[in-house]
Amino acid sequence: MAEVGNYGTDILGLLVKASHDEDENKRITVETVIDECKAIYIAGHETTTTLLSWSVLLLAIHTDWQEEARKEVLELFGQQHPNAEGIPRMKKMNMIINESLRLYPPIITMTRKVQRKVKLGQFILPANINVTILTLALHLDPQIWGDDVYLFKPERFSEGIAKATNNNPGVYLPFGFGQRSCVGMNFAINETKIALSMILQRYAFSLSPTYSHSPVQLLAIRPQHGIQVKLHPL
Ligand code: HEM
């Protein structure tokens, strides 16, 4: 139990603490606390769920990578729950997640407001317009990724994101870029690694013939009819 006045150090605790700040100028309203909770819930739930779903689809199709991932999970954790020492050492899993996020970024566009008139390449952008960045178009550009751009090839990321993008961080944006990039990135990646590991420890899975491919944008890009896989207990 938290003591009175001690709200804990998780995000909710920090928000509640800020709503009780003695300095009126720093204090936030209860409405702001509620808004922030809604933002975190919405930004954090759909996105991670869809990443996990598309990763399962890709591994159900590419069973060679599923085997590679399972081998890594069993080497690191055996049948134990994934732990804090092993999770950062998951190289194959990282490659698979990076490639899933390239092909199926849950958030496919981002918007930035132009604060003041600025020259961007050959364009002059006036102040107060919104610029939309097409994440998906960048992720599927053959000039950046090569002619095999539509293929699931986690080996692109075998030497990290910088190498895969030729040191151009602006072409791979699953979590955005700059000061307003995703605050939940590490949390989401760890959560996905844990969930996938626990599935791989227990089941082999293959794509069901009833699956029908139909990505649809409902906030995040999600599979319209779900993802049906056949589970084979190990
Ligand atoms: C696979 C999972 C996720 C993906 C793909 C994702 C993607 C993104 C993207 C593209 C942005 C916009 C960044 C920008 O404009 O540069 C964003 C912002 C944000 N994300 Fe995530 N996100 C994920 C998980 C999460 C989780 C788990 C949380 C919270 C626990 C979260 C909280 C937020 C918040 C609060 C923002 C707004 C940040 C700001 O405006 O300063 N996200 N996310």
Describe this structure in words.
There is one protein chain. By secondary structure, the protein is an alpha+beta fold. It has one domain (11-233): Cytochrome P450 (Cytochrome p450, Orthogonal Bundle), CATH 1.10.630. It is 43% helix and 15% strand. It has helices spanning 11-19, 30-61, 63-77, 91-103, 135-139, 142-145, 160-164, 185-202; strands spanning 109-113, 118-120, 123-125, 130-134, 203-207, 215-218, 220-223, 229-233. A two-stranded antiparallel ribbon has the order 1-4. The chain is globular and about 60 Å long. The two termini are 41 Å apart. The mean pLDDT is 94. Protoporphyrin IX containing FE is lined by residues 39-40, 43-44, 47-48, 51, 106-107, 110, 174-177, 180-184, 187-188.
Task: Produce the secondary structure layout.
Layout: H1 11-19, H2 30-61, H3 63-77, H4 91-103, E1 109-113, E2 118-120, E3 123-125, E4 130-134, H5 135-139, H6 142-145, H7 160-164, H8 185-202, E5 203-207, E6 215-218, E7 220-223, E8 229-233
Antiparallel strand pairs: 1-4, 2-3, 5-8, 6-7
Helix pairs in contact: 1-2, 2-3, 2-4, 2-8, 3-4
Key traits:
8 strands, Cytochrome p450, binds protoporphyrin IX containing FE, 234 residues, two-stranded antiparallel sheet, alpha+beta, 8 helices, two-stranded antiparallel ribbon
Q: Summarize the helix and strand pattern as letters.
A: HHHHEEEEHHHHEEEE
Low-confidence stretches: none
In whole angstroms, how far apart are the ends? 41 Å
What is the mean pLDDT?
A: 94
Q: In percent, how much strand structure appears in the residues?
A: 5-15%
Q: Give the cofactors and ligands.
A: protoporphyrin IX containing FE
The CATH superfamily name is Cytochrome P450
Q: Indicate the radius of gyration in whole angstroms.
A: 21 Å
Q: Could you tell me the number of beta strands?
A: 8
SS field, number of helical segments: 8
Query: CATH class, anyone?
Result: Mainly Alpha
Largest sheet, if any? 2 strands, antiparallel
Binding site for heme: 182
Organism: Camellia sinensis var. sinensis
Pfam family, one: p450
Family: Belongs to the cytochrome P450 family.
